Amino acid sequence: MSLPTPYIAHLTEDDYEHVYEPAEDSFILLDALELDADLLTSKKPTICVEIGSGSGIASTFLSNLLGTDNSLIISTDINVHACQATIRTGEANNTTLNPILCNLLSPIQNRLERQIDILLFNPPYVPTDLDELIQTQIGKDIGGSWAGGNDGMIVTNIVLDRLPDLLSTNGIMYLVTVIQNKPLQIIKNMESKGLICKEIIKRRAGRELLSVLRISRNTI
Ligand SMILES: C[S@@+](CC[C@H](N)C(=O)[O-])C[C@H]1O[C@@H](n2cnc3c(N)ncnc32)[C@H](O)[C@@H]1O
After folding, report:
1. Ligand 1: which of 60, 77, 138 to mutate, most ligand atoms within 8 Å of CB?
2. Cα separations (Å) of 35 from 41, 179, 189, 191?
3. Span from the CA of 63 to the centroid of ligand 1 (angstroms)
4. Which of 40, 63, 68, 101 is deepest in the core (most CB within 10 A)?
5. What is each CA distance from 86 to 20, 69, 126, 157, in whole angstroms?
6. Residue 81 near residue 55 (C-beta atoms within 8 A)
7. Domains and CATH numbers, the chain
8. In this structure, are residues 63 and 98 in contact, taking their beta carbons and an 8 Å threshold?
9. Which one, of 70, 10, 60, lies nearest residue 30 by Cα?
10. Over the stretch 4-48, which tens digit does the pLDDT of each residue have?
11. CB of 53 within 8 A of CB of 26?
């Protein structure tokens, strides 16, 4: 199955002053979804969530893959400009997205307990010092797109620690990582929580060695 990359030409240089411009890490996430397209449609997911939607490219791709008749696509971002861009990207691609301006899943987390069928996260994964992480999370602007603190994993680990409480019985998470995040350690960590975790794509993009981990409750 070959799915079109969402249209993003409505986003301007000015938008990209504040919103993460889709790059190789965004595209590897789309490629992972495309690779699993038959699996994803066969599972008939109803509750789909993207944390940190940025431009909205991945939520739009997922929405176009699944259709909005049976699947609800919720996205979150701490950056108001990203939430606005996500709405515009949905509209430009004839789909409706539902961005929420919040930290990770904070206002909806309890309501989503064991309810998420598909969870996407291309997190701020770049290793930085703790101070940069804290300042960019407080600033809620473009810097929050990459600053990830120690091992680039501080924000990601908050989500991974809660993952067993978030995924539905058939739930699947797609997580973008770089080698500095120690993907093999993430796999072991997820297995220790009783989840199944596999690297499904790995690719070098300039200086970054990117991969997408697929994490699920059940064997796929
Ligand atoms: C690497 S960018 C990915 C953007 C988009 N998903 C993509 O793949 O192109 C990370 C995104 O996560 C958002 N983000 C960072 N910290 C967050 C937090 N605590 N809660 C929600 N979103 C966050 C950033 O604002 C940014 O839009």
Report:
1. 77
2. 12, 21, 24, 23
3. 18
4. 63
5. 11, 19, 23, 24
6. no
7. 15-216 (3.40.50.150)
8. no
9. 60
10. 999 999 999 999 999 999 999 999 999 999 999 999 999 999 999
11. no
User: Rg (Cα) of the chain, in Å, rounded?
Assistant: 16
> Within 13 Å, how many C-alpha atoms sit on residue 169's CB side?
2
Distances (CA, A) of 212 to 120, 184, 200: 10, 12, 6
- Which residue do the tokens 């987390």 mark? 109
Question: Order of strands across the sheet with 208-216?
Answer: 98-101, 72-77, 47-51, 116-121, 167-178, 208-216, 196-205
The amino acid at residue 71 is: S
Cα angle 143, 92, 88; round to 5: 40
Whether residue 77 has its Cβ less than 6 Å from ligand 1: yes
Taking 80 as the threshold, does the pLDDT of residue 1 lie above it? no
The per-residue pLDDT for range 73-84, each reduced to its tens digit, is 999 999 999 999
CB 77 within 8 A of CB 101: yes
